[in-house]
Structures are given as C-alpha cells and as structure tokens.
Amino acid sequence: MSVPTTQRLILDAPVARVLWRLATPNVFAVTMLTAVTLADAWYVGQLGTAALASLALVFPFQTLMQMMAGGAIGGGITSAVARALGAGATKRAESTAWQAVLIAISMAALYMVVLGLFARPVFALLGGEGDALDGAATYAYVAFGGAAALWFVYVLSAILRGTGDTATPARAIATSCVAQILLSGTLTLGWFGLPSLGVTGAATALVICHGFAAAYLALHLCRGKGRLRLRPHTLDWAPIRDIMKVGGLGMINSTCMAMTVVVVTGFVGRYGTEALAGFGLGARLELMLVPIAFGVGAALTAAVGINVGAGHFSRARRIAWVGAGVTLVLTGLIGIGAALMPSLWLDLFTADPDAYGYGARYLVIAAPFYCLFGAGQTLYFASQGTGRMVLPVSVSIVRFLTVVAIGALAVSFAWDIAALFAGVAVGLCIMGVGQALCLSSPGWRGS
Questions:
Q1: H or E element: which one contains 256?
Q2: Cα 297 from chain centre
Q3: Rounded Cα distance, 216 and 153, in Å
C-alpha cells in the first residue's frame, strides 16, 4: 500500500518544510482565536471595571475547557490517530475517531452540569461579589451551557490533525472567529439598534459560532473527505485507553495550568476589585500564549506521532526542538514588548488608573519569562506525539505547587502583591526548563 502524500512529507521532507506545511494553518487559526479574545475583552471593557472583573473570574475556566478539549483530550486524539496511521492501521484510526466523539459528548455534559448550573457558588469562592459575580454567573450559564459546541469543534479538529490535515480545521475555526468578533460586538454593545446583552452577548456569540464550525467539520468527516471517515463503531475501550493515556494525563496538565490562574486570581482578589481587574488583563495575555504554542504544538503532535509510529525517533526529536525554537521567538517578542511597554496592551481595555497600575506591575515582572512558558508548552504538545506523558505532566504539577506555595506565603504574611507576581514568573521558568528536560526521557528514544 502506498504512503499518502501528507504522511510521506512528515516522514521524509526537511523539518522546516514540515513545520511550514502543518503549523502555518494552525498558527493562522489561533491568531484568529487570539483576535476573538482581544475583541471580547475590549467590548466588555466598554462596560466598566466590574464587567472586566466578571471576565477575569470566568476566563480561567473557559480557558481550561479549551485546553482540555484542544490540548489535552484533543492532543490525545491527534496522537492516537497519527500513531495508528503512521503504523498503517487505518481501521484502528477510524475506530479511534468514533470513540473520540463519545468522549467529547461525555466531557461536554460534565461542563454543562458543573459550570453551566453551579457557576455562582464557584465564582463566589474566588472572591467574586456584587456586579462582578452577577456578570460572571450569567456569562457562564450561556457559555458552559453550550459546552458541546466548543468540545465538538476541538475534538473533530484533533481527528483531522491526526491525519496530517491542519488546513480544514483552520478554515473552520478562522471563519467562525470572524463571525464571532462581529456577533460578539453586536450582542455585547447593542450595535445596529439591537439591545445590549452585556457580558452575556459575548458568551452567546461564542456558542453560536462554534456550533456552526462544529457542524461543518462533522459534515466534512462524515463524507469521508479526509484520510479516514467518521462513522459509528461499537464501543471499544482499547482506543479510548490510547486516547486517555495522553488526554487523561493532559487534563491534569490543563487543570494545573488553569487552576494556577484560578488560585492566583483568588489571592489577588484579597487586594481589591481593581487588582483583580488589572491582574485579569495581565493573566489574559499570558493564557493567550497557550493558543500560540498550540498553533505550532498541535502540528508537532501529529508530526511526532507519525514519526514515532514509524520508528523515526531521532527525526521526531529534531522536529520538536525546531518547533520549540519558533515558539520561543514568537512568545519572547510578545513578552518583552509587554514588559517594556505595558500600555500597548492595557490601554486597549481600561482607563481605570488603579487597574492599569496592577496590570502593569504584573507584566513588568512576569512577561519577560513568557518565552520559556511558550517554548515549554510547545514541547509539551510535541511530547503528546510519543504517547508517554507522565514526566511532562509532572512538570506542570511542580509549577502549580510552586506558584501556589509562593502565593499562599505572600497572602499569609501580607507581602506586597509584587511577591505574588514573582511567584507566577518562577512558575513560567519551571515550565520551560522542565519540558525541555523531558526530551531526554525514554519516551523520546523508543525505549
């Protein structure tokens, strides 16, 4: 049986060409996702500081869902499909794709119940109160109540990426992002004579646009236009285990990343609403680096997975290092720019001098280390292609525990908020150095 063109490119072409072919569509798609994040923050910023604080409460959980769907479970799906195709097992890849759909249904239901129904008490635990709590709860009822739309977009995209097709999901995501930017502004601020829905408008646009993108991807796969066809299979625990040995551990990683922001948000809430709003803007920029790392990293998951499946371990490591270098430069430029000129970011969203001051302090302290965080995340996604994730996930756990410990000390001893921000910076360094060390582990050498 002949090797398909895309797989042959991944196995044999120069590394730079592989990355360009696979990563460029992903980077374009996540750039559009970043544009949505910026637009939503700007729209909500027009509603006032309390509305920005609402978004700060919700954002870590929304990001957690995206990271679980796209980076954790999605990475496990891409890895399992890619390794199956790399080994020439097309039937196994198709069964894996169907089991992935069943996983998506289950995870979407979990989010709908936990955060779609019980958002208010969760956000209250983080220090949300008054208008900020009301806005966060109403946003969550809509966004997490429609969790299925987001889960299906990311899971179906992950299936396609596992086949080496990064262009089709990129088209779907980019198109939905353009529509979401327009619809979010319309519903949030009441453009074109329509009533303003406030923060709920942004959530409504999210669900509607992701729903249409999911429908397009489902139709594409069901028609068999890719290297595999999505169709019903009997429940099979073997491919589910194959997905979850990467995706299950990946959920721990995603949870640690999001909960790092959640716990620090809770600590920052002790310093007041203005501190919460300012930190929320800074943390939003940090978490926006994850999609950039994912843009390159998701391509690495597929490229590494196919090469590992074919036994080309040395080539897999080379691809990972080159991809991490690309992300190091991209995120480093963003971080240095934010640290030197925080106004370029903060002025887009708030005119409150107190909120601005807290946001600027955060960026000056943490942003110089964004390059290590971005490169580390890219290497984490690359490691997913090996199917062995214990060590990469352990790095995230160490980062989480370190940041929480420093934050708890800062709050307990009433240290200046700069100490809390410094703890975040230490965590960013741990992510970069730790993930780089993982490439020396047995999973990268076939042993």
A1: helix 237-268
A2: 11
A3: 9
